[in-house]
Structures are given as C-alpha cells and as structure tokens.
Amino acid sequence: MHICWWCQGKLIWDRDVDASEYFCDENRDGICTCLNCSSCNAAVIYTPPEEG
To answer: Of all residues in the chain, what percent are helix, strand and coil, respectively (each to 5)?
Structure first.
C-alpha cells in the first residue's frame, strides 16, 4: 500500500500511461503510474528514471 506524503492518506491507483505519451517523446521507454490520494485528492505520478 502506498501512503500520501502530504496527509498520510491511502494512494489509489488511477491508471498507467506509456512514458512516451506522458512526456510527448517517443524515445522515452517505460510506464508512468498515476495515483490519487483518497483523503486530500493529491495526484501522484511515478515516472521511470531518466537515462543518463
């Protein structure tokens, strides 16, 4: 279970998006995961690490 760092509420899965679509860059690989807090309604997005 993921916890909101703002209010400690539960984060609920919203959707997964291809990183190439989210960043509008077809060279980005991976999946971005979008979550919403059930208490304060914060949006959280986990993105794949950038290649260096």
So the answer is: 10, 40, 50
